[in-house]
């Protein structure tokens, strides 16, 4: 019930060199659980923003009244990576030794924000639900930790997809929960939900 909402929320997005550098933002109004209405959208060209500083932007909504006020910071991506199984970051003995040194007891208080990191190997899924009329699915896997999100590529027409990807996340809160969700890609439509598992970090 507000025409001037204040959200004051922060989100971290990771974009890599092979991704488009445009941030798309949409504002929606929700009447009830079933009815939603688009109030406007705007776009931000990430490549045009200065790095390593907070950029305060007032963005007018396209073809609709109103604007969004945002702070956007572009910084080098640290601690987050996607790699193939054959070049797993922790597979290198030298890197393992550096990590052991970094988190040893005598270095515990060197950087209080550096809690650690989580490495997840997404190998495959088995016996997924068929979401298409052909009796197949086009599955991809999304990993979320806190407000970090990474995803695999899509394996088309397959109920037993193999991704063989390694994801590395920095840990910001030891009480966070890793959520792994499998979706079926459906062209321009929202993806179909195929299943989900939640893993508390404290259980690892």
Reported by name, the CATH topology of the largest domain is Immunoglobulin-like
The whole-number mean of residue pLDDT values reads 84
Helix/strand structural class: mainly beta
What's the CATH architecture of the largest domain? Sandwich
Order of helices and strands: EEEEEHEEEEEE
Radius of gyration, CA atoms, in whole angstroms: 20 Å
Number of helices: 1
Strand order, sheet with most strands = 8-7-10-11
Q: How many structural units, i.e. domains?
A: 2
Overall shape: it is: globular
Number of strands: 11
Q: How large a portion of the residues is in β-strands, by DSSP E?
A: 35-45%
Keywords: Calcium, Membrane, Metal-binding, Repeat, Transmembrane, Transmembrane helix
Family: Belongs to the MCTP family.
GO cellular component, one term: synaptic vesicle membrane
Subcellular location: Membrane
SSE layout and pairings?
Elements: E1 22-30, E2 36-45, E3 54-60, E4 67-73, E5 81-84, H1 93-102, E6 116-124, E7 139-145, E8 148-151, E9 162-171, E10 177-186, E11 189-200
Antiparallel strand pairs: 1-2, 3-4, 5-9, 6-9, 7-8, 7-10, 10-11
Pfam family, one: C2
Membrane topology: Multi-pass membrane protein
Protein name: MCTP2 protein
């Amino acid at each position: 019930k507000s025409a001037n909402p204040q959200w004051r929320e922060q989100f971290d997005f990771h974009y890599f060199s092979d991704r488009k550098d445009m941030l798309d933002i949409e504002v929606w109004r929700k009447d009830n659980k079933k009815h939603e209405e688009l109030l406007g959208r705007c776009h931000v060209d990430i490549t045009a923003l200065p790095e390593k500083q907070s950029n305060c932007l007032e963005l007018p909504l396209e073809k609709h009244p109103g604007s969004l006020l945002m702070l956007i910071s572009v910084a080098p991506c640290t601690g987050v990576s996607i790699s193939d199984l054959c070049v797993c970051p922790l597979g290198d003995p030298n890197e393992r030794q550096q990590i052991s040194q970094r988190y040893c007891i005598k270095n515990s208080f060197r950087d209080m924000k550096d809690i650690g990191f989580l490495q997840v190997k997404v190998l495959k899924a088995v016996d997924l639900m068929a979401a298409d009329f052909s009796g197949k699915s086009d599955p991809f896997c999304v990993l979320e930790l806190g407000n970090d999100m990474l995803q695999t590529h899509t394996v088309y027409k397959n109920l037993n997809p193999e991704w063989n990807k390694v994801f590395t996340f920095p840990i910001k809160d030891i009480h966070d929960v890793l959520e792994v969700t499998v979706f079926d890609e459906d062209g321009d439509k929202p993806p179909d939900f195929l299943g989900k598992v939640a893993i508390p970090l404290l259980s690892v």
